[in-house]
Design goal:
By secondary structure, the protein is of the alpha/beta class. The chain has eight helices and five strands. The protein has one domain: P-loop containing nucleotide triphosphate hydrolases (Rossmann fold, 3-Layer(aba) Sandwich). It has a five-stranded parallel sheet with strand order 2-3-1-4-5, sandwiched between helices. The protein is globular. 38% of the residues are buried.
Length: 173
């Protein structure tokens, strides 16, 4: 069984995922990192060269691949839930945990990470601020909710507490 972490960028999927994998003795994989490694360029560069469609094709291929693994914590890209075939693969793979936070918290985290600004494209014409996050979440919230087996609000809790909440939630299932 795998544990698949979903949520908007800045929700802590990679950070929480690495710690969770370490505690549970599981492997860890970040789908965005695999995409970047295989493409030899950043997500921003993939979007510029291939558009969002090209990126989503790459993402779907990676998700299908990593979902076939076992005993792995998977940090899925924020938009992975946009394609139904990704959701099917993730749910078939194991438990899907949605890490959610308020738009202001997400914006603060994203703004505080210089790598995100340099390597990730804006998702709307709104330029990457809180308004963009709200606009994108408006479309994605129902998709995250439908995909999730467990939802954890990690907006204002420390890493170890978030990991403990996930472990408790999965133990109850």
């Amino acid at each position: 069984m795998n544990i698949v972490l979903i949520g908007y960028r800045g929700s802590g999927k990679s950070t929480v995922g690495k710690r969770l994998a370490q505690l549970l003795g599981m492997a860890f994989v970040d789908t965005d990192v695999l995409i970047i490694e295989r493409a030899g360029r950043s997500i921003r560069e993939i979007f510029a060269a291939e558009g969002e469609t090209g990126f989503r094709e790459r993402e779907s291929a990676v998700i299908q691949e990593v979902a076939a693994r076992s005993n792995t914590v998977i940090a899925a890209g924020g938009g992975a839930i946009l394609r139904p075939e990704n959701v099917v693969a993730m749910k078939r793979s194991g438990k899907v945990v949605w890490l959610q936070a308020e738009p202001e918290v997400l914006h603060a985290r994203i703004s505080g990470d210089s790598a995100t600004a340099a390597n990730r494209p804006h998702l709307t014409q709104l330029g990457g601020g809180v308004e963009e996050i709200r606009a994108v979440l408006e479309k994605r919230l129902p998709l995250y909710a439908a995909a999730a087996d467990v939802t954890i609000d990690i907006g204002r809790i420390p890493l170890e507490e978030a990991v403990a909440h996930i472990q408790e939630s999965l133990a109850d299932r």
